[in-house]
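Q: Two folds, back to back.
A: First:
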Amino acid sequence: MPIRFLTSGESHGKCLNAIIEGIGAGYFLDLNFINNELAKRQQGKGRGGRMKIETDTIELKSGVRFQKTTGAPICIEIKNKDFENWKIPMSPEAINFAVFDETAKREIEEKINEKSITRPRPGHADLSGAIKYHHKDMRDVLERSSARETATRVAVGAICQDILRNFNITGEFKTLSVGGKTTEDEIDKIIEEAKKEGESLGGELEIQFKNLPVGLGSFVHWDRRLDGRLAGAMMSIPAVKAVEIGMGKGVSGLCGSRVHDEIFINTANTDMPDNTNGASFVNPTIYRKTNNAGGIEGGMTNGENVIVRLSMKPIPTMRKPLNSINIKTKAAEQAHFERADTCAVEALGTVALNMASIIILDAFFEKFGPDNFDETMKNFKNYEEYTRKF
């Protein structure tokens, strides 16, 4: 059974939900770890005012008993505190205007109209979504296409990441650049400048997973290749426009001898070289001096660290708005602005790390079985022993 998950909820709705299928029984969930990942998503340089309102934590609804998974689908919920300020314009129920006097009716209509959106933001889902779903008020597009939805993905991924830790598989991310700047002082400065100017910024980051066993994923069919699965997951995150694995686009300008990671054997049984990229789940006499492949060859992990880089575009919502139109009047106007971040590259790192954790755990369960912790651990240990003797 592959790991599948479904999310629901809007940016300013009552809550965000997720149902996760494919997690076996017997895994103790560290709620502090999971909630800490949610907190990380809300942090970082350039984040906006919404992060001062919300303090995201998960509430377990089903599939977990005494903090251990039962094998049943897991349901989680994250409440939106800001919904208190949006009860009327985001009401799931129809408003019965017949019970209100004329003054109250006008006040309700004004609150709804204040939140109505008719000026699409270039770079966002507003215009295409309105055309596709016949929406006259693009609020219905913004609320679901908002990056707020990634809070549920982080929660799902944090559960997966927590499970992977049982097998000593860990992940981390680092920011490589923001707005083309690479040092912390430069990044701080350019974010402050962008904030003053009403601009927004994108950037680059890298995620890395260590201690992965050889052979996660497969070469036998296109949709089982791990690099393809990871790239698809990364591209599904709002604002991500490019994904690279290992050397990435750098491979296009080099000859093969400078790209492919040569394989060596330590026949003398001496200490391994320091530059083996942390590979530990391989035959201890087999090693590589480089990791240009980013830990994936032929759609499978090869024992080296898995390295994925992402490029994030600037956030489309800006106080310095771009030219747009009004879909109601068809007049030329400036794009809609709503409270937003100046930069969310660090937040993206947390989202990407946890999305990748879902894909990696799915491939891990595919290899070692998902049904229960004891069986999976036994299979994992047996394979580890086999690999070390290969």
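A: Second:
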Amino acid sequence: MNKRKDFAQKLLDICSHVKSVAISGHNNPDYDSICSSLAMQEILRQNGIKSDVLLEKELDEYFYDFIREFNYKTEVLTPDVLIGVDISEKNRMPKEVVKIADNVSNSFVIDHHKYEDKDLWAKFNQIWVGESSACEVIFRTFEPYFKLNNKLAKIFYIGIYSDTGGFIYSNTKFTTFEILAKLVKYDIKADEIVRDCFAKTKPNAFEINKRAINSVQFFDDGQIALSVLRYSDYQETKVPYSGSRYIVSYLQSVEGVKVVINVFEPEPKVYHISLRTMVDGVDVSEIAAHFKGGGHMRASGLTLQGDLEKSINAVIKQTEKILGITK
């Protein structure tokens, strides 16, 4: 029996013999984190296992309606099993989920991010570094144990589309397209998903994105692009953090830019920093890891607190180091 089936059967067997199972992704969840949680929940349901998906807070109107229609829990639970998806390290977990991880009897992780062995928290781990998404890892691991339907196919498609940047990142491989070919057979209306989930912009979100563009600065002869959204921008436009995150994609299209740094301050003196690159040989996850963040070679993130200027300067300095820029 191969390791993939070993992991899947172990998870299903343990979960089928306990009273409660909880599933959680990382804090400030993106679509892959949310969709891999929902996909895992549906796979468990198909195998006669009830589970709860945990989120830090309810999803707001800036998330796709199809995703918001699912049931989540935000209160603290005491499950017998915790399944972490898209999250192998505790430093990116919601605080309340860390408490669960520290006390649960059985725990599983399904992920695709780089990790340090010392930071692994789960008893059982299925981590395929470099895969397109946690959704792809789940699909390939559990494929013998679920039946695709329209709902599950849409969930997988959204997660994979999001974490591949619309299939343009280098983590998009032939196995990814093999899965996509299976998904589109279920009348998921991929064009509608992309339009409604990723291409639509609400008027006030357009305003905050305009502010982000107006804040842009370039460093090191245009190799580094920086945008900053302050807490005041969120307050004045009444846009939550989730409504501003897609500004990260735009600056990658500027010729000569190697690394994009987008700084978001959704609460005072707390900075969520997104890193993006389209350049071969540049791994922004190395920048994020320096600050105890994480992510992929092409897309990563971290959180800093305190003084804004010092935080920005520290990230730029580390980015210059990765790019081999000396001063």
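Q: And?
A: The two ends are 55 Å apart (CA to CA).
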